[in-house]
Amino acid sequence: MNKITGTIITLNAEKYILRAIESLKNISDEIIVLDSKSTDSTRDIAKSAGAKVYTQEFLGDGPQKKEASNFATNRWIFSLDADEYLDKDLINFIKKIDLSNIRYDSFSFRRKNYCSDEWIKAAGFYPDYVTRLYDKNRVNYDARADHATVNSKNTLKTSCHIVHTTYESMDEWVDKMNFRSSMSARQLYKDGVMPSDVRPITRALFAFFKKLFIKGGILQGKTGFKVAVTTMFNTYLKYTKLNDLHKK
What we know:
By secondary structure, this protein is of the alpha/beta class. It is 40% helix and 23% strand. The protein has 7 helices and 9 strands, in the order E-H-E-H-E-H-E-E-H-E-E-E-E-H-H-H. Strands 1, 2, 3, 4, 5, 6, 7, 8 and 9 form a 9-stranded mixed sheet that branches. Helix 1 links the parallel strand 1 (4-10) and strand 2 (30-35). The mean pLDDT is 96.
């Protein structure tokens, strides 16, 4: 078996954390959970499932994932979000490769995004490639506060899948949007994007048009429309929160 450390960053993830850990056990001999001071039972569940659990104030998406890799005893890391799990084709793929004799620094996988029980294939939601398996001695996550990626050019693009539960209810999705839009606003502020009273409206409307028509959300009926509307709302929140950061 390849020597792989699975890493998961968490915040109040009791609903999904056990599923993520059990999934990683198929390919990992070590699992690290780096928790951002959850107030639910996330850490207790993770410890009971056999993960090594550490606590760290949230540093942003990229820095937090990079920090999690620092606890790993293995050089190869599989970074999984708490609301994701590995599909069978991905597990089989990793079991067949020999990471001790590989010329790639990282591997990327297709992600299946589910809204409730429906797989979203339109609106740019598939194949949604994400790089998650990487050699930490060569590459690691960038410093972005939101939507961070592994800085790697020598990546093997596979056809295997990660399954992502985007949300199971609108309450859950609104909570996630609130959190993610705050992280995105912080990143925009860090990048030097200036405030604007017009930008929240224009960017939100364009996001709606892009998801529904350019990315084909309209082809998936009411679910595609829901994706377009929530993307529009998330975009509006992101740029409105950026304005608030400048006011502070």
